[in-house]
């Protein structure tokens, strides 16, 4: 098959969930013998150095340097945008050069499949009469934005207005835009049964396939070890007798910041009173100032960017996911499960993963549940290890990228045989 993938960002380096998903599915499509052309926005010139890595798997890679378009700040312009323009989350990713390059590629190539990654890129295809488009939805964006708006202090995220009415309007615009998009592109890939049901409730005639998130089990597995002399082994040597909690994520994504701040102030400080040797590792790029400030607590380590999250997961006693805002499914949990770690998560954090509470994950949605679960796991090492082993077995049986990619290929092939016939 000849496949065009259009993405709002370059899926490398593998430091965010969306990047990991796109890159692994793309590379497996290429390894299966399919021809891939790839178009994406980039947000700094430094990203150009990753194009050569993409070319290992793609016949053609086109990247476009992007900055959000300038906007007038006068009241009339702001009111017009709020009432009549597409949602801000969409228009911030509009680039005329991107549109022109997409048009050129479509004129010069006869693609079997056009795979649009996420809602942001749909604006480039709404007025094109093409019947071979698949929209890959990583989340339900309006639902995430709704959760932003409903979360205390979420206005720290620059994508949200300080005005309540403006936020509410943006939620409704996103819902309207999503419905328009789903009605236009009738073939959609989602990451969870929950997201599928959400779309089907709005548009029952839409054809939806669940292509779950996954994990590279050759990298994230329980045989991973660090030996004395490795820099990470030496780093964690000083924490050998501590009860180590680890959270990983890209903090350009506000839900990660919200999760850490919430956990620290509402749960961690109480745990410290009972577990004096507890440590909290916050691992990931671009931490907000509020996160960096947590380093003032000697029991919290905010790392910033790391080139490999595996050592932190490996040395953790419990991997935590206290997310209150989210959608889709969390690759970070699958990575920790792949390394046979006990995961404690909110229900929101575990969405999209076929896990069972108290068997291969522990679900904690209240502060008392978090406190009791972590106290118990600190005291009961056998329970901790058992849940970790069960989580590994779950991931190994259902969430390897190889099997997930095979399902995506089958989805493509069935559409070509039935729905996409010329």
Give a verbal description of the structure:
Strands 3-2-1-4-5-6-7 form a seven-stranded parallel beta sheet, with helices on both faces. 43% of the residues lie in helices and 15% in strands. It has 422 residues and is of the alpha/beta class. It has helices spanning 17-31, 51-55, 75-84, 88-91, 96-108, 141-150, 164-184, 193-202, 231-237, 254-274, 289-292, 310-315, 331-338, 367-379, 381-398, 401-417; strands at 2-7, 35-42, 60-65, 113-117, 133-136, 187-190, 207-210, 243-248, 278-283, 300-304, 318-321, 343-345, 362-363. It has 16 helices and 13 strands. The mean pLDDT is 92.
Give helix % range: 40-55%
Number of strands: 13
Taking the sheet with the most strands, its summary is: 7 strands, parallel
Q: Strand fraction band?
A: 5-15%
Major beta sheet, strand line-up: 3-2-1-4-5-6-7
Number of helices: 16
Distance N to C terminus: 14 Å
Q: Given the helix and strand composition, which structural class is it?
A: alpha/beta
H/E order of the elements?
A: EHEHEHHHEEHHEHEHEHEHEHEHEEHHH
CA radius of gyration is: 22 Å
Coarse shape: globular
Classify the oligomer: single chain
Which stretches of 5+ consecutive residues score pLDDT under 50?
none
Average residue pLDDT:
92
């Amino acid at each position: 098959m000849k496949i065009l993938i259009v993405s709002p960002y370059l899926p490398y380096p593998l430091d965010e969930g969306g990047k990991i998903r796109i890159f692994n599915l793309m590379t497996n499509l290429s390894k299966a013998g399919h021809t891939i052309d790839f178009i994406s926005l980039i947000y700094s010139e430094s990203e150009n150095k990753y194009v050569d890595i993409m070319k290992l798997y793609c016949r053609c890679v086109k990247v476009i340097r992007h900055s959000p378009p300038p906007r007038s700040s006068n009241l009339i312009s702001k009111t017009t945008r709020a009432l009549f323009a597409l949602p801000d989350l969409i228009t911030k990713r509009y680039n005329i050069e991107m549109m022109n390059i997409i048009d050129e590629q479509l004129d010069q190539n006869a693609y079997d499949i056009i795979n649009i990654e996420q809602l942001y890129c749909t604006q480039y295809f709404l007025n094109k009469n093409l019947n071979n488009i698949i929209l890959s939805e990583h989340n339900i964006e309006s639902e995430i934005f709704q959760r932003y708006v409903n979360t205390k202090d979420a206005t720290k995220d620059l994508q949200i207005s300080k005005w309540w009415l403006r936020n509410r309007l943006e939620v409704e615009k996103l819902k309207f835009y999503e419905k328009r998009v789903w009605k236009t592109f009738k073939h959609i890939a989602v990451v969870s049964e929950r997201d599928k049901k959400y779309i089907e409730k709005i548009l029952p005639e839409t054809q939806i396939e669940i292509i779950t998130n996954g994990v590279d089990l050759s990298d994230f597995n329980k045989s991973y070890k660090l030996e004395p002399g490795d820099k990470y082994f030496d780093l964690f040597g000083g924490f050998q007798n501590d009860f180590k909690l680890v959270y990983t994520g890209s903090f350009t994504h506000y839900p990660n910041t919200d999760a850490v701040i919430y956990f620290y102030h509402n749960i961690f400080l109480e745990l410290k009173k009972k577990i004096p040797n507890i440590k909290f590792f916050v691992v990931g790029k671009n931490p907000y100032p509020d996160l960096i400030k947590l380093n003032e607590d000697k029991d919290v380590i905010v790392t910033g960017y790391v080139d490999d999250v595996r050592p932190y997961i490996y040395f953790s006693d419990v991997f935590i996911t206290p997310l209150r805002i989210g959608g889709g499914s969390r690759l970070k949990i699958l990575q920790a499960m792949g390394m046979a770690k006990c995961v404690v998560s909110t229900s929101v954090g575990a969405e999209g993963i076929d896990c069972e509470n108290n068997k291969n994950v522990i679900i904690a949605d209240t502060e008392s549940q978090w406190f009791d679960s972590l106290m118990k796991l600190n005291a009961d090492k056998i329970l901790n290890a058992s849940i970790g082993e069960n989580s590994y077995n779950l991931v190994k049986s259902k969430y390897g990228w190889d099997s997930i990619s095979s399902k995506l290929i089958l989805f493509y092939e069935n559409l070509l045989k039935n729905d996409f016939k010329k």
